[in-house]
């Protein structure tokens, strides 16, 4: 496990073994709210993790156990810098609308509110502490959850429940979110990050090419018809089945050893 470092002290990054990156939002005194500096620092890490071929999975968490992230910093919004918090077309934190090929896992302790919940929803998987909670309180402030929350919540929760959360602004407990499938793993608070890292390491042990191709199709499964998805799947199969990883995977299986992926 490497030592943590980052852009100033707003966001920390820590390499876990050879293929997993742990990214920590580091403003616990401000409930890890995303100001302009933190948002752009996180966006830089998103881009760098995509370019780094040795990184196969990323875990995103917040410093401390009280709040994963309270969303966009209202002080910056009040000062007229709200538009600057978004990182170009990639949106809040350079993550919520970013084009990504690698899996991200949110490790949530405490509250994930507003943009904080939207960061978690933008990740591919969520591991949550059993005392965590998620909420989109934007309507209480005359706003909407415009960092993807208004549609992503309806994809991962039953429609009636999603509409209730969006229109009341009230939170949902991690245990309820887990029971409805929004949260992958529900664990004691001090185990959330370790559990997310363990999940990331399991992913990283698999073929990066196969994981990348699988996720690319699964991520758009709710947006495309079966004919279109099958065509994309067939093309992905053509790329994967002739790859070095496919040959290595079969060879390793026959030889009873762990595969050594080329990608």
Offer a few descriptive terms.
four-stranded mixed β-sheet; seven-stranded mixed β-sheet; disordered N terminus; alpha/beta; 2-enoyl-CoA Hydratase, Chain A, domain 1; single chain; Lyase 2-enoyl-coa Hydratase, Chain  A, domain 2; 2 domains
Mean of the pLDDT scores?
93
How many beta-strand runs? 11
Within CATH, the superfamily of the largest domain carries the name 2-enoyl-CoA Hydratase, Chain A, domain 1
Strand order of the largest sheet: 1-2-3-4-6-8-11
Percent of sequence in beta strands: 15-25%
Characterization of this structure:
The chain is an alpha/beta fold and 263 residues long. It has two domains: 5-204, 2-enoyl-CoA Hydratase, Chain A, domain 1 (Alpha-Beta Complex), CATH 3.90.226.10; 208-255, Lyase 2-enoyl-coa Hydratase, Chain  A, domain 2, CATH 1.10.12. The protein has eleven helices and eleven strands. It has helices spanning 36-51, 74-78, 82-85, 115-122, 149-156, 159-168, 174-179, 192-204, 208-218, 226-241, 244-255; strands at 5-7, 11-16, 20-25, 57-62, 67-69, 104-108, 111-113, 125-129, 133-135, 172-173, 185-187. The model is unreliable at 1-7 (pLDDT under 50).
Summarize the structure.
The chain is of the alpha/beta class and 263 residues long. It folds into two domains: 5-204, Alpha-Beta Complex (2-enoyl-CoA Hydratase, Chain A, domain 1), CATH 3.90.226.10; 208-255, Lyase 2-enoyl-coa Hydratase, Chain  A, domain 2, CATH 1.10.12. The chain has helices spanning 36-51, 74-78, 82-85, 115-122, 149-156, 159-168, 174-179, 192-204, 208-218, 226-241, 244-255, and strands at residues 5-7, 11-16, 20-25, 57-62, 67-69, 104-108, 111-113, 125-129, 133-135, 172-173, 185-187.
